Each structure stands twice: as C-alpha cells, then as structure tokens.
Amino acid sequence: MGKIHIMDELLSNKIAAGEVVERCMNVVKELVENSIDAKSTEIKIEVEQAGTKLIRVTDNGIGMDKEDAVLCFALHATSKIKTSDDLFNIGTLGFRGEALASIGSVSEITLKTSDGITGTEVKVVGGKIEEVNESDLRKGTTIEVKNLFFNTPARLKHLKSFYTELASITDYVNKISLTHPEIKITLISDNNVVLNTDGSNNLLKNIKCIYGVEVAKRMVEIEAENEDYKISGYISLPEVHRSNKNGMITLVNNRVVRNIELNRTINDSYHSYKPDNRYPIVVLNIEVDPTLVDVNIHPTKMDVKFSKFEELNDLVRETIEKKLKNINLIPNIEAKEREHKKVETFTLNFNINEEETKYEKQEELLTEEPLVINNDLIISEKLKEEEQELVTEKMPLMYPIGEVHGTYIICQNDTGMYIIDQHAAKERINYEICLDKLSNPNNDKIDMIVPTTIEYSNNEYIILKENFDMLEEMNFKIEPFGINSIIVKAHPTWIPSGNEVEAIKKVIEMVIEKEKNFNLGRFRDHVAATMACKMSIKANDEITKEEMERLIEDLRKCKNPFNCPHGRPTIIYYSKEELEKLFKRSGF
C-alpha cells in the first residue's frame, strides 16, 4: 500500500487555521472584513477575556439565505472570486474562502443571519455542522465564536496575556475604523466600551476617538496623485511622534496593509524634523488600480506588493516633505489647568510616553463650538478648515532681549515671547551650510600643514579604497600610504577649524560603516549633521546681543528654521494670552 493519502477535511482545516487564525485578533479581523464586504454601515464587536471565551460580531449588512449560510463554512467557499482573472482585480477584503472554515475547525460557532426574506441559524463545533434552524428576520449577520482553540490546546497555551491579546484586537479595530470612517464601529471588551465611532465619514473625528483631541489638532491633511496612484489622509506635525511604528497606518484601496519600504519612506520624509528613533502618526490611504498590487501574498492578506513602487515612493515622499516645508512648526506652549475628574468609561492607553507640545492657533481650535455625539466631545468640523489656514510664513520677526543660563535666547514681538535654544539653532544653520557645500562641491579645499596618516584593518581599507573617488568629490585629497594606511593631504573648507583630524576620521568611518547600504544623499546629510554639531556654539556659552541678532537672522534664512538636524525644536512660543494665564492676569 502506498504511503501517500488524502488528509481528512477537518485535519486540513486545522492546518489552514494555523496560518489564518494565529491569535484572537485574526478571528476579529476575518469576521469584521466579512461584515464590511457585506456592505454594513454598523458593526459591533464584543469580546470576553480578550476573545478567548467569546468573540461576537454583529452587523447590519446584506445577510445570507439558508443555502449560503451553510455553505460558507466549507473550505474555499467564497462569493468574492470565481475565476483566476478575479485574483488580479480584487475589490473586496476577503476572497480566499478559508476564514470561516478555519475558525470553525478550532472553536464553537453560532451563526445567525438574514437577507430580510429568510432567517437562518447554524451551529458549528470543531468544524462539524451540528444544527441548522430557522432564525429571526433582522437583516444582517451575527457570528459568535466561543472557546477558541478548545481542541488545539497547544495553540491556546501559546497565546499571549489577556492584555496583550486585547491590545492586538484594539489595534486592529482602530486601524479598520480609520480605513472606513463611514461605518459606525463599536468595540466592547467585557462590557466596557473601548472604541465607539459615529460613522459620519469624518476621518479626523476617528483619529480623535483613537489618539485623543490633542493629537488630532496636530494632524494635517495631505492629498496628491500621479498617473498611477492617488494618496490622501493625515500626517502628524513633527512634534507628535511615537516610540514605535504602530501609528504609521497605510491603506491600499481601503485595506490595512504592511509594507516595510513604504513605512521607511514615510519616516524618512520627516528626516531632521524629529529624532530618528521616533515615528510619526500617519493615516495614509493609497488608491490604485487593483492590477498594480498583489495582496495574495499571505493568508492574512496584510502584506502587499506594488508594481511601479518607485512612482508611489516618490509621490509619498514629495507630498509629505512639501507639506512640512509649508507649515509654521514653532510649538506653542499653552498654560492650562487640568481638572481631575473621575472617568467612568473604560479606556486603554497603549502609548503613554508622549512628549507633546501645543501648536499655533490651538486656542481657537479649543474654543470652537464642538459637536456632541453620544456624550462624547468630538472635534468641530471647523478643525479641518483651521488647519488649512495655519500661518505658512517661515520664522516671524522677533527681537532678542536677553539670555538664560548661557543657553536660551529670550525674544519678543507684539504677539508674545519666544525662547530659542542657541545650540539647536546654530546646528540648523551650520547643517544647511554644510549640506549645501556637500551637495554642490566647488573644489574649495584646505591643504593640511601636517598631513594626517590613518591606519585601518584590511577589510576596512578595502572598503575605503573603493570609495576614494567619492571622498575626492567631497574635496578630500587622500592617497594610499603603505599597507592598509592612507594619508590625508587636504580637506574641504567646511571641516571645523581646530578639530580637523577628528572630523576627517569621523567622515571616513561613516563611509566604511554605510558601505553596504550606501546612499550618497543620506550620507551627505549624516556628515552635514555631524559636522554642524561640532561647529556649533554649546550650551553655557555666553554670546552678545549682536551675536544673538545675527543668529536669529541666519536662522530665519534656513529652509527649516524650526528643528535642529536631529529633530529637536529650535524655538518655542508663549502667546501674550498664555503668559497672562500663567500669572493669573486673565481667566481660564
């Protein structure tokens, strides 16, 4: 007898479940996506014990008749695609026909559904249909998933803590609510409301529901398109950032997706506006012909590949960079007394280590008459309009009046008080000077009175020798000098005086370190930032009023006067009104 045989259907479903249903979140995802595909306008998600005991998804979609209600639990049963051509033109979230069969094989399911004509209830235990009965005619579908992984204890054992599982579910529901602001989505955990959107098709309101009003006020809208792609959504001001990439949400044709290269492009667009180890909050929807993307890479359907990715990459980068360049980014500090009130509603705070400052014109945004929906304060519709009216001029005129601790320059004008970090400001000035010289070399170099000899290991020397031409383009004069050694005879004029040898070594080290993933533009940027820091006045260095005025004038000429090259703010602002509040000269 041969050794090869056909697997039992239940066994094959359990194996498929290992790919489709790894965690409780995967069950929620598959059920919610089915509800969206069913044209629902309201979706209610209820979980108990982070979904291990119960997951219930209720929608008001088109529902199913009796035949479809039974057939939907069969493997590869789907209404989404019929031919192989459909795989290249996918317009629904689900299409593989694996989800319900996989979920049913490792849980106990009760399905109640109605198309408005007939009502059907189907009970499934461990992949077997136990009962099929008539049900009520409420149009839509309710699916209850109980005792997940009851028959696969090894998988149940490897689930994370309840908190971690609930956090994963919440993260997904947050993202899907941003994908579909036109759908009212409610998430309830153990009878506590975690998320409740209103379905008004206002993306900024949903951002507020998830991240809070302070973050929502610091989001700016973007929109652009080229021949192949159209992008739209919101990006955070540089002062709003997170310690992880979780807030960078990318959507393709209203599907939540993952693409490492795209996330890198978004983050790189903020380069020098924020610290490199922090990440912005972004909700970016990409509209594209379905034939240009492949979402059939993994059963979870979250990984995606793009055709013509370079065109998308350039569009995203250019759009974000242009938006950031055209906004006044001076943080506005607000004096505000916080009232400590007992909070009755259940909330989850997954990102609590935030350093946020106030933004210009926020007083008007805070005092604007709000909308009230379900006793929840929602951002006014005018918030979007106000964002468009933010001051687009660069640095306003200001006049220095003194210095604190040899570090902070105090300035004023008719509107309020400014505080400038003199080191950060000088870094920005020097950075743009160095970057301009690096990007536009003009053969300006200085011969060294005493040439410097530097020795490297054999592998480092091989890399360095391959990059001699690039160093010469940057106006270094470098020659081989014995075994694994070089001699530096001249250096570019932007190398800081008095610290030449250390600076030269630092530049060469960066060439060696970056060789594997070398990008000339980013390298020049890195060199410029490093050199700018070494050339700049330090904290506790007293400067004269004339030097303050010159520094402010030089800063005003910068392309981005608001941040040092490492992303720290150069200026913060206190309006006259906020100063009066601080000293109790006006009411709150």
Total strand segments:
24
Q: Nearest-angstrom radius of gyration?
A: 29 Å
| Average pLDDT score | 79
Major sheet summary line = 8 strands, mixed
What spatial order of strands do you see in the largest sheet? Answer: 5-4-3-6-2-1-7-8
Per DSSP, what share of the residues sits in E-state strands of 2 or more residues?
15-25%
Structural class: alpha+beta
Low-confidence stretches: 13-19, 79-97, 297-301, 338-392
Secondary structure: helix percent: 25-40%
Our measurement of the CA-to-CA distance between the termini, rounded to an integer number of angstroms, reads: 87 Å
Descriptive report:
The structure is a single chain. This protein is of the alpha+beta class and 588 residues long. The chain is 33% helix and 23% strand. The protein contains 19 helices and 24 strands. An eight-stranded mixed β-sheet has the order 5-4-3-6-2-1-7-8. Strand 22 (477-480) and strand 23 form a beta hairpin. It is elongated and about 95 Å long. Residues 13-19, 79-97, 297-301 and 338-392 have low confidence and may be disordered.
